[in-house]
Design brief:
The complex is a heterodimer. By secondary structure, chain A is of the alpha/beta class. Helix content of chain A is 32%, strand content 32%. Chain A is globular and about 75 Å long. In chain B, helix 5 runs antiparallel to helix 8, helix 9 runs antiparallel to helix 10 and helix 9 packs parallel to helix 12. The longest helix of chain B has 34 residues. Chain B has twelve helices and no strands. Chain B starts with a helix and ends in a 5-residue tail after the last helix. Classes of the chains: A alpha/beta, B mainly alpha. Bound molecules: adenosine-5'-triphosphate and magnesium ion (MG). Magnesium ion binds next to helix 1 of chain A.
């Protein structure tokens, strides 16, 4: 088999998931209630990509992952993983993936080691990689799961799921509960896996995380995918923070800035200094500024957090 | 390899050994108190002809009930076995899934590369394994205590009764498992299994009293493989075996199919 770099590993098409059932008797009487999980969600994740899935609580991230894994039956849509249909080839798909659920519960009476061994019976362990995981994480694997703290359980679970070095990782908020050091170590592992061609699909609320490790990000809100962009492009395309200081008294007023359509916000810091957030049309702002004498001008990409808050 | 089976076998050993201990303890107690008990039974023999008394004792259908060791053994141990059957068949299979779902470990189990039918079958096999221990310990303690007391007991009757018991455990277990795959939730599964299996138990034990209204006993699986029928046929009645096993296989296939197809929105 020739390795195609842009090979699609995960293909999600027009996924709509409605929870619950509604029975209508005429116009007045209804039984049950329907809740929208996702609506017409489509995206694809390529081989070797880290795809971040962002969205507020209840947006539909976990729902999407569960439909992908065929835990939930969608109303419409299809999912292909490694060109296998997610429904017809469950076992084939599962041989190649690792799934870390949002609130991962593990067998309480097992020790970490037993857990790893048990999972290893279903998906053969990559011993070398397991050693690496063990050195990067700090959890004491000889202890029973029930005696571990939340973060340590998460670590044990991550090790157990990842020890087989699956080709696709589906991670639902994998770093929730991890301390900053462990999170950083985990990111290192993901980056390393990515270099080896592993594909990673992860949901997160941590924007710094997405910004630092993801190649692309999908933002879901209210069940609908409202944006899919490369992280770099997103930062460039969207907000830029501009600091401008004018030389003499002839400086524009706040009102003048607000006239400009691409200025999203303006803040007067000192009498002649303004902090602006500008959107896509940078030229408009530059043309406007060229009418004035400028002492200092800095421009930088807003971080993802600022961009993202617009979508919440 | 059958790793799900082995893991669960190890995990739920306590559930597995309690019922056999109950029957061993029970028969052992009868054996110890047998001489004085025999007197008591002789005195009460008249009362036992009373239909209500018969119903309460579980209507084992044992003909020629006398003050013999064999009769007493089957009457008391048989009643206990039926109650064990009732509880074991309701509580174990109906909760096979919900224990994992309640603890949330189901989420990750479902992501492992094992076909769903196989996962369910391995879990159910744990129940079947433990189910095997109950009739085996019953046979052991019955034959053992008989030998110790120097009494007599028809071995083939004991063996066939034990076999029939195991077949009933299988079939009632599949019904309970079916409830589990339909409802998932532990309370609902238990309630459903309780109604379906407990209802049959009730029909069987009360059937004698309701005989005037209709043949309710025939609706109950507990009514199958009675000692009377075994005695008459000299073995398990083939017709009954076919019916009971067919119901079990059908329920098992339904459970596997539902489990394979259903969604898990917990
Ligand atoms: N089992 C369920 N039954 C009914 N509705 C559900 C169920 N699970 C989720 N929902 C609904 O579906 C929607 C999406 O939920 P989902 O869990 O996918 O959100 P999420 O993006 O993962 O949120 P979070 O960031 O809090 O994890 C929510 O409105 C939620 O109430
Ligand atoms: Mg979630």
């Amino acid at each position: 088999m020739t390795e195609n770099i842009s090979e699609t590993v995960l293909q999600v098409s027009n996924l709509t998931k409605i929870y619950g059932r509604e029975i209508r008797l005429g116009d007045l009487i209804t039984f049950g209630q329907q809740v929208r999980g996702t609506y017409n969600v489509s995206f694809q994740v390529k081989k070797g990509e880290i795809f971040g899935f962002l969205g507020p609580n209840g947006a539909g991230k976990t729902t999407t992952m569960r439909v992908i894994l065929d835990y939930l039956k969608p109303k419409t849509g299809s999912v292909e993983i490694f060109n296998f249909d997610h429904r017809n080839d469950r076992v084939e798909i599962r041989k190649r993936i690792g799934y870390v659920p949002g609130d991962m519960a593990l067998f309480e009476d097992f020790t970490g080691e037993e857990l790893i061994k048990y999972f290893g019976r279903f998906r053969p362990i990559d011993q070398e990689f397991l050693q690496e995981l063990k050195t990067l994480f700090r959890v004491k694997l000889h202890k029973k799961i029930k005696s571990l703290s939340k973060g340590n359980r998460q670590q044990a679970g991550l090790i157990a799921v990842m020890a087989s070095k699956p080709s696709l990782l589906i991670l639902d908020e994998p770093t929730s509960g991890l301390d900053p050091l462990m999170t950083a170590n985990f990111h290192k592992i993901l980056k390393k896996l990515q270099n080896e061609g592993v594909t990673i699909f992860l949901s997160s609320h941590d924007l710094a995380e997405v910004q630092s490790i993801c190649d692309r990000v999908g933002i879901i809100r209210n069940g609908e995918m409202i944006l899919i962009e490369a992280v770099d492009a997103l930062k460039a395309k969207f907000l830029q923070n501009v600091l401008v200081q004018f030389l003499d008294d002839v400086a524009p007023s706040e009102e003048d800035f607000k006239q400009l359509t691409s200025v999203l916000s303006v803040e007067r810091i000192k009498s002649h200094t303004y902090k602006l957030k500008i959107g896509e049309d940078v030229t408009q702002v530059l043309k406007f500024l060229s009418n004035y004498n400028i002492k200092r001008f800095t421009c930088e990409d807003a971080d993802l957090e600022e961009i993202f808050l617009q979508y919440y | 390899m059958v790793y799900v089976y082995l893991k669960n076998l190890k995990k739920s050993w306590l559930t597995g050994i309690v019922p056999p201990l109950v029957i061993i303890g029970f028969v052992g107690t009868i054996a110890i108190g047998w001489p004085s008990m025999q007197e008591l039974i002789l005195q009460r023999l008249e009362t036992m002809d009373n239909p209500i008394m018969k119903a309460i004792l579980g209507d084992l259908g044992l003909s020629g009930l006398g003050a013999t060791w064999e009769a007493a053994l089957f009457m008391y141990a048989g009643g206990t076995m039926n109650i064990l059957l009732l509880f074991v068949a309701i509580f174990i299979p109906a909760r096979l899934l919900s224990t994992e779902i309640d603890k949330n470990t189901f989420d990750i189990m479902l992501s492992l590369p094992i076909p769903r039918w196989r996962y369910l079958l391995e879990k159910f096999s744990v129940y079947l394994t433990y189910s095997l221990i109950i009739p085996i310990s019953m046979v052991g303690i019955m034959l053992g205590s008989t030998a110790l007391l120097g009494e007599t007991l028809t071995t083939s009757l004991v063996l066939n009764y034990a076999l029939g018991f195991f077949i009933l455990q299988f079939t009632l277990g599949t019904i309970s498992l079916l409830c589990a795959t339909i409802f998932l939730d532990s309370n609902k599964s238990l309630a459903a299994a309780g109604i379906v299996i407990g209802g049959q138990y009730f029909l069987d034990s009360m059937g004698g009293m309701l005989a005037g209204i209709g043949n309710f006993e025939a609706l109950s699986l507990f009514n199958y493989f009675s000692l009377g029928a075994i005695q008459q046929a000299g073995m398990l009645p083939i017709g009954e075996v076919v019916i009971v096993v067919s119901i079990g296989v059908l329920a098992l296939i339904s459970a596997l199919t539902i489990f394979h197809k259903r969604e898990f929105a917990f």
